[in-house]
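Teaching assistant here, posting this on the class forum so everyone can see the example we discussed in section. The complex has two components, and the goal was to see what a joint structure prediction looks like when all of them are supplied at once.
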Amino acid sequence: MRQKVLVVLLTLALVLVLAPLGLADNDTLIIGSGAEAPGLDPRVEVDIPAFERINLILEPLIVFNTQMELEARLAVDWELTNDNYTITFWLREGVTWHDGEPFTAEDVKYTFEWVLDPDSDAANASLYADIEEIEIEDDHTVHFHLSSPNVFLLNNMARMNITPAHAGNREDFRQNPVGTGPYMLDNWVRDDRMELVAFNDYWGGEPNIPNVVFRTIPENPTRLLAFEAGEIDVYQGGVVPREIERLEADPNLIVQRTPSTGYAYLGMNTLSEPLNDVRVRHALSHAINREGIVQRVLNGIGTTGVGPVPAALPWYNDDVPRYDYDIERARELLDEAGLLGQDITLDLYTNENLERIRIAEILQFEAARVGIDINVHIEEWGAFLDRILGSEDYDLYILGWSGQLDPDRAMYRQFHTEGSFNDTYISDPRLDELLEKGLTVPPDSQESIEIYREAQEIVVELAPYGFINFQEEVGLVHPYIEGYEVHPYPANSWQNAHLFTKNK
Amino acid sequence: MFKFTVRRMLQLVPVIVGISILVFLLVHLAPGDPIRLLLGEEATPEDYERLQRIYGFDRPLYVQYFSWAGNAIRGDFGVSIRQGVPVTALIYSRLPATMELAFFSVLFAVTFGVPLGVLAAIKRGSPIDLSSMVLALLGVSMPGFWLGLVLLTYVALNVGWLPMFGRGGSVFYGIGQLFTTFSTEALFDGFRYILLPALSIGTAMMAIITRLTRSSLLEIMGKDYIRTARAKGLGERVVVFKHGLRNALLPVVTIVGIQFGVMLGGAVITETVFAWPGVGRLIVNAISQRDFPIIQAGVLMLAVIFTLVNLIVDLSYALLNPRIRYD
């Protein structure tokens, strides 16, 4: 009896060990993603993981390429006319929806009108609030008439994928969308996998790899292990900083890096004493050990912070006041303000983000050397967001911005007196004037560049933010995948997946 | 016994009502706001107010509660704020994954924990006792998620046939396939996915069971009736297993029952490490996003399951010890 059991167990063990290993499958691209998409309707989603997937299924009129320039997608061309009061799009012909219906100007009109409908649950309607009327000239020409010039509206439109007028109101559209993109949704097991299949009538030609699978792996170390074991082919974002050196030394995989469109900052509530004194804000800016933070906390992923506009954009101004790490200078500034040696205690808030917590601790240490006591409070994300957006009950906070695609996006909401995210309560008439004027000047003109260069100088001089670091996007890919290029804006990472090839 | 069961089931009603009110108040009064979290950092006040209105959060709290409770009684637990999908569908699609993981963790823990504990007790003071106690101490001290990462890094990465994450088919489906089509493929597929997660979660529980079985059996073995049994000339095996272990298992069963309930909602971190699509992850994500309908329905479901598991544990006492009766 005992021997029998043993034989059975041994056989079972043998079967398990010799069981066929997963064969290389060149027909399926497996993408590892850090979070699941809540849904796939571009009109109501806000999460980056959602748009990572949506961008394969539905397409916007125009998209950002990896150089952060606008590129034609469902539109072939576009133009600002009528003193920037009108944007005209000429649409691509011969595009069909996944269900065979032709794509026309009606779909474009439908999508934006749906978003602007006050009874819709569109998430970011205010991004498109300047659109007053949408006029269809013919099936492939559409004019957007604006209530006030907003030359950066194009950048927002590059984030709105067009939905079909004939199917967009279907109740299950968010779970099972119809698009014009290179892939169609085939099967979706939430929190586990999303399987896409090629749309063979895609206007851009049949996709190279017939299947794409998104696997959701929330834990970064597990995702990295799965990548190294070859279970996923490629992923972007969430690379643990202390792993980067080892990964870059590994010849069997490719690490791609690019400056991102985001940064981390120390926000200072200019309503609270003594932060209402610009010298105190300057002192704190001098106490930020940017180089140390980038090297030791971020392991070199990122660069030291300068101002609100990412260095990748043409408006970036390198010539702004710099607050080098200098404790002596910080003490002098505090002395000038008549506060040196006095008891100053500030409350700093941030969320449960390991890197932000470490930055907060470093800041606490450096500020103590200047003579400022910082109490660090770590809050859960929801509670933290509630505090910063919904109250004035904080002195300092550490937070980041992502997707700073143009200077308006990077400054108006944050630093205009009426800005919706002016959580430092900074107010400067000249700055307001510049930020308003910038919206009316063609973005590719020298005038636009000069306006925003001056605005950056004012922001950095007023120092409502202490700029900590610019972020970097890191993408990991196996050498057998060709065509992947890390994108500065993670939501757009896979928009060209139909052009990838896989030869494992 | 029937009366007892019915009485206990009736007691569920106030428990559920109480929990639903408590959970409702907790999630609504805690800081953090689902619409703010939904809209993220880019929302303007106009977008915020519009969505507050559309989701009905501008109504007084008691109105919101009664409208929710009224629907819940009819089996409608609402739609996820974040995902726009009925909550019941979300929970049902994940429940099998969690149940299966909990089942196999418990199975592993019991199959190894009880014999190890018995062995340690009857060979008290021997090297076997000592090493099993060291093993138990190690098992209790290692957090499941850490053990999971260690297993992934040192075992799965080297073995090749163990996947790093996710869930294959169900093992039960695999067993069905084995008997109907004599194919081991589905069984193997389910098994290799569940092996490491079940091991990670089951180890700590196995350790607890080992220690508990040992101490409980040692205590029983010192009782008078064991001496009587031995004096009657019964064989040692009968004394230990029939007279000793059966009684010693009462506290073990209690712990297994409680642990099973805890696992249904509490294996969250391990579920996250292995990207296991379970209920725990659903609820915890919902909490961080303040997705009220999921939190309410999820916690309520866990409370009901917990109560039911406790009832089953109570009933099983009667099986183990006939002197315990429920009338």
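For the discussion questions: The longest helix of chain B spans residues 185-221. Chain B has 14 helices and no strands. Think about how each of these relates to the inputs above.
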